[in-house]
Amino acid sequence: MKLPIYLDYAATTPVDPRVAQKMSECLLAEGNFGNPASRSHKYGWEAEEAVELARRQVADLINADPREIVWTSGATESDNLAIKGVAHFYKTKGKHLITSKIEHKAVLDSFGHLEREGFEVTYLSPGSDGIVTPEQVDEAIREDTLLVSIMHVNNEIGVINDIAAIGEVCRAKKVIFHVDAAQSSGKIDIDLEAMKVDLMSFSAHKMCGPKGVGALYVRRKPRVRLEAQMHGGGHERGMRSGTLATHQLVGMGECFRIAQEEMHVEQERIGKLRERLWLGLQDIEEIYINGSVDKRLPGFLNVSFNFVEGESLIMSLSDLAVSSGSACTSASLEPSYVLRALGLSDEMAHSSLRFSVGRFTDEADVDYALDKIHQAVNKLRELSPLWGMFKDGVDLDSIERATH
Amino acid sequence: MACSDKVVDHYDNARIVGKMDNKDDSVGTCMVGAPACGDVMRLQIKVTAAGIIEDAKFKTYGCGSAMAFSSMLAEWVKGRRLDEAASIKNAEIAVELALPPVKIHCSGLAEDATKAAVKDFREKHAADVPAGV
User: Fold this and answer.
1) What residues contact B36, with CB distance under 8 A and at least 6 apart?
2) What does each C-alpha distance from A315 to A280, B4, B9, B79 come to in angstroms?
3) Is A330 on the interface with B (CB under 8 A)?
4) What sign does the dihedral B91-B93-B99-B103 (CA atoms) show?
5) Is B37 an active-site residue?
């Protein structure tokens, strides 16, 4: 067991050895190091072949055409390209855009940028379960709406949106639909032939691939156009210039191939580990799951431990690697905007921990974590005046306190 | 985030945690902060007839720095006179714990707590606290 125990798969994942092996074959002089755009010699042709194989592997997992895959440096770049690319290309047709309040910052910040350019953005509020409904999207669409962007799975709470149904709504009203699938690819089925999604962002490092590489799915039928954000040699059909990094793309292709073969079995195993963790916590009083319980990815567990603050809990759990919705762990000193948007009080957001298990987590890890969590929560509750008052039956809202 | 060793020490070996009977005449009690800010501290001081703080107990809901603060503070006020305790400056404790700038606000809580506990005690004994204490 390697300490600290890694329970933060939602943040990033270790690269699978099989992926690392494939990547390493594309680095050295003896390997496949050529520039895939070099038309005139074997080094280029072989690199191109490897890249096109990887492209097919990505397309196969999501039931898309390889020509619909654009390589990027990650989901953040894919989000930027999709959102700004569509808004700029179609700006003469309208200026209204729709997204949700709990999207990843790469999406929210891109929309923020467009607002400063004069676009109007509607930010939909999720329900207390964290889900944005097709009805909400339908109601928000106007005559001049260009684009809707709703994430498939939320990175903090692991909750799943019904993007197939939202896609139907958008297609019926002829609005382009983008989905950030960074957290969902390789974990739940995605069928882009069936789903009416026009653009989809992917990231390799959330599925045991390398960091620094991702992709954007851009639908061909009906055709979606976008304005490139990276200009240069015209790579990726002019949509994203920049020499293709063979080793990165081969790595991403391999992790999509592994997911194609192993996803369902792996997610079932991961689900059982998550249940083991949750059941093991049941004897602790005053704990609450954040976000929908049933529409959630198997690996995620976001829990608030009432009367205990998140950063102090993390400090106490120095043998576990997890993350918190507490203000103290964010750069801005504000509690998680996702948890706040669900309607959680500040104190419950401060008291939250996100556990995410994955490919290399095992039962021993979970049992060890449970032991440490019990110790930490008990100790911190001993130290907490709020817990003391709760146990004494004091109404915490009625206390007058000096302000500071 | 990295914490100074002193913060970790105070946190791991939190001293003087607990509760006093706030109906006891010799005890001053206060609670400062709010859960919404992520910091709540309760400090209680037991004061002798001569106006010296003979014991202090705290409980805190808050981040590692806030907890270390409370612990350090409760230790610091023991043996001090009331007016000395009331004149504590959060900057002193921040330096002692080698806190990064983003955590300085936690020290403000400690300063407020001390002043409020002293005030509570004084209000209980408005008539009989000796002059100059």
Assistant:
1) A345, A346, A347
2) 21, 12, 12, 31
3) no
4) negative
5) yes
- Yes or no, beta carbons of B38 and A329 under 8 Å apart: no
Q: Are A316 and A376 in contact (CB under 8 A)?
A: yes
Q: Is the pLDDT of residue B2 over 70?
A: no
Place of tokens 């020490």: B9
Contact state of B19 with A388 under an 8 Å Cβ cutoff: yes
Which residue of A lies nearest to B12 if distances are taken between CA atoms? Answer: A316
Q: What is the dihedral of CA A91, A95, A99, A104, to 10 degrees?
A: 50
- Interchain CB contact of A333 with B (< 8 Å): yes
For residue A81, report the phi and psi dihedrals to the nearest 5 degrees: -65, -45
pLDDT in tens, A46-78: 999 999 999 999 999 999 999 999 999 999 999
Summary mean pLDDT of chain B? 75
A335 at the B interface (CB within 8 A)?
A: yes
Q: Are the beta carbons of A209 and A254 closer than 8 angstroms? A: yes
How far apart CA A100 and CA A82 sit, in angstroms, is 16
Measured CA to CA, the distance from residue B100 to residue A274 in angstroms comes to: 36
**Measured between alpha carbons, how far is residue A109 from residues A11, A121, A140 in Å?**
19, 12, 20
Q: Which two tokens stand for residue A163?
A: 């993007």
Owner of token pair 């006891």: B24
According to DSSP, residue A152 is labeled S
Contact B62 A345 (CB under 8 A): no
For residue B62, which residues of chain A lie inside 8 Å, CB to CB?
309, 312
Using DSSP, state whether A69 is helix, strand or coil: strand
CA atoms of A198 and A178, how far apart (whole Å): 6
Check whether B126 has a pLDDT greater than 90.
no
Q: How many CB pairs under 8 A join A and B?
A: 88
**Phi, psi at A170, each rounded to 5°:** -65, -45
pLDDT digits (tens, 9 = 90+) for B53-62: 888 888 888 8
CB contact under 8 A, B33 and A308: no
Q: Which burial class, exposed, middle or buried, applies to A279 when counting CB atoms under 10 A from its CB (0-12, 13-18, 19+)?
A: exposed
pLDDT of amino acid B6: 55
Q: Minimal Cα–Cα distance from B99 to chain A, Å?
A: 13
Query: Closest by alpha carbon to A359, among A135, A207, A205?
Result: A207
Is the backbone peptide bond immediately before A385 cis, with ω within 30 degrees of 0? no
- Could you tell me the pLDDT band of residue B16, with boundaries at 50, 70 and 90? low
Phi, psi angles (nearest 5°) of residue B21: -80, 110
Q: Do B35 and A396 touch (CB under 8 A)?
A: yes
Q: CB–CB of A13/A258 below 8 Å?
A: no
Distance CA B114, CA B91 (A): 14
In chain A, which residues have pLDDT < 70?
A: 326-333, 397-404
Q: Which secondary-structure segment (H or E) carries B53?
A: strand B53-61
